[in-house]
């Protein structure tokens, strides 16, 4: 069955056929969105068919993904991550219906596995030999993970400053790692140049139109896991803006398929030092580059590569952008761990920092249903967590010291 109609350009709105473009709009260079034949798909996918499907990964949505068969699907479980009703964390903010989607539970421990799984499967079907990508770390780690058992290893461009755990992942999975003495934005451009020269398939976020398709599966899961009650708000951190636009695409695809009857408001959480999307949303103007500096390395982006789609998601969903300081981001790490038992990397914790701000400002009310998407595991960046986690008590080997600590900490 032909399920995809083609692409539509997010910048100029032009349609184009699947074979007319590989990455961006042939007319204006804007990013492309995949358009499905919703009428045909309505016959294939329903609440009932999903309920009967035993598949516990993002591949339960194969009908609505740009992949034909199962032969190129990486043999690890991407997606179908847990959704928790975070009662204690919610109570801390005066919210009754706070939910937490823990995407740090993906195979390489970040949300990016959704995109890389889909791109890897598609690259297999279209016969691509080498897949390359630039990344702040997680997209690369996920690509390396999804390609690990393939004959050709991925080529990865990462900034030299990427957290060591993410670089270790790349090397362990066997990728060819090119360490760029510059920013993520410079790594992105270098990767594109190399792909042009060598003919490698480019997985870059906000350039390859299929990453958004993988990311939308998180929205599908939210609808199912909330028993089809669409949340009022979805909070997620934004760097390039591809995750938030992917989530929005998921909700709008399910809406077009008649699976949900309303849509949530999307909230982009950005770091104050890397807020190009928030700036554009506030000004109503185009995306303008910023200096891109924050402790949350995954959202440290000067020029958001999918910024226009992210701003469109905010506008169409009647959502908004919120910025948080690095101090708030770091403080959110132990708050999440202690209030919801989830250890997030700074960019993941940022979603909670944004929610906390909005709750304090009265933008979210007690009975609203809000989801925070935790996009990466805290084990990705232990150094940042240690800045706010406190220190162990030194007890040498003496029982007397243990007693002193127990008394001081009032542990009975
Ligand atoms: C953990 C984490 N959170 C959030 C983001 C932001 O996603 P996007 O750049 O698509 O906005 C990323 C991207 O690298 C990430 O790795
Ligand atoms: Zn265009």
Describe the protein's topology.
Elements lengths: L3 E6 L5 E2 L15 E5 L1 H5 L4 H6 L30 E3 L1 H7 L3 E6 L10 H13 L5 E4 L3 H10 L7 E5 L4 H10 L2 E5 L3 H15 L2 E2 L8 H5 L1 H9 L7 E5 L4 H15 L8 E7 L4 H8 L23 H10 L3 E5 L1 H15 L5 H15 L8 E6 L7 H5 L12 H10 L4
Parallel strand pairs: 5-13, 6-7, 6-9, 7-8, 10-11, 10-13, 11-12
Antiparallel strand pairs: 1-2, 1-3, 4-5
Helix pairs in contact: 3-13, 4-5, 5-6, 9-10, 10-12, 11-12, 13-14
Bound molecules: pyridoxal-5'-phosphate and zinc ion.
The site of zinc ion has 8 residues, from loops.
Question: What labels describe this entry?
Answer:
binds zinc ion; 6-stranded mixed sheet; alpha/beta; Rossmann fold; globular; binds pyridoxal-5'-phosphate; 412 residues; 38% helix
Describe this structure in words.
The chain has 412 residues and is of the alpha/beta class. The protein has two domains: 47-74 and 111-202, Rossmann fold; 83-110 and 211-386, Rossmann fold (3-Layer(aba) Sandwich). The protein contains 16 helices and 13 strands. α6 (164-173) links the parallel β7 (155-159) and β8. α13 (326-340) packs across α14 (346-360). It is globular. The protein starts with a strand and ends with a helix. The protein binds pyridoxal-5'-phosphate (PLP) and zinc ion.
């Amino acid at each position: 069955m032909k399920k995809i109609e083609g692409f539509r350009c997010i910048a100029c709105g032009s349609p184009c056929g699947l074979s007319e473009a590989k990455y961006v709009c042939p007319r204006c260079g804007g990013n492309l969105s995949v358009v499905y034949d919703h009428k045909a798909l309505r016959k294939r996918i329903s609440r009932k068919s999903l309920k009967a499907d035993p598949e516990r990964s993002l591949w339960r949505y194969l009908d609505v993904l740009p992949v034909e068969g199962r032969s190129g699907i990486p043999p690890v479980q991407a997606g179908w991550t847990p959704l928790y009703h975070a009662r204690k964390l919610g109570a801390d903010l005066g919210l009754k219906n706070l939910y937490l989607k823990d995407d740090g539970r993906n195979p390489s421990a970040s949300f990016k596995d959704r995109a890389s799984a889909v791109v890897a499967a598609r690259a297999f079907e279209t016969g691509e030999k080498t897949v390359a990508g630039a990344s702040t770390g997680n997209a690369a780690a996920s690509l390396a993970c999804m390609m690990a058992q393939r004959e050709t290893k991925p080529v990865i461009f990462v900034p030299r400053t990427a957290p060591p755990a993410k670089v270790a992942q790349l090397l362990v999975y066997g990728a060819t790692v090119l360490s760029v003495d510059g920013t993520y934005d410079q790594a992105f451009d270098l990767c594109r140049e190399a792909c042009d020269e060598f003919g490698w398939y480019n997985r870059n976020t906000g350039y390859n139109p299929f990453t958004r398709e993988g990311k939308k599966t998180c929205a599908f899961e939210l609808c199912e896991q909330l028993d089809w009650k669409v949340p009022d708000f979805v909070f997620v951190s934004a760097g390039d803006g591809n995750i938030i636009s992917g989530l929005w695409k998921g909700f709008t695809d399910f809406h077009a398929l008649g699976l949900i009857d309303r849509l949530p408001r999307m909230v982009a959480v950005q770091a104050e030092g890397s807020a190009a999307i928030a700036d554009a949303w506030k000004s109503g103007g185009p995306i303008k580059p910023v200096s891109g500096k924050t402790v949350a390395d995954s959202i440290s982006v000067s020029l958001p590569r999918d910024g226009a789609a992210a701003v469109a998601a905010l506008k169409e969903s009647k959502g908004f952008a919120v910025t948080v300081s690095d101090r708030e981001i770091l403080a959110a790490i132990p708050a999440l761990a202690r209030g919801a038992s989830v250890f997030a990397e700074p960019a993941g914790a940022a979603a909670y920092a944004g929610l906390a701000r909005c709750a304090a400002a009265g933008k979210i009310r007690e009975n609203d249903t809000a989801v925070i998407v935790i996009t990466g595991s805290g084990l990705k960046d232990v150094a940042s967590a240690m800045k706010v986690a406190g220190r162990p008590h030194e007890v040498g080997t003496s029982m007397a010291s243990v007693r002193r600590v127990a008394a001081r900490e009032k542990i009975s």
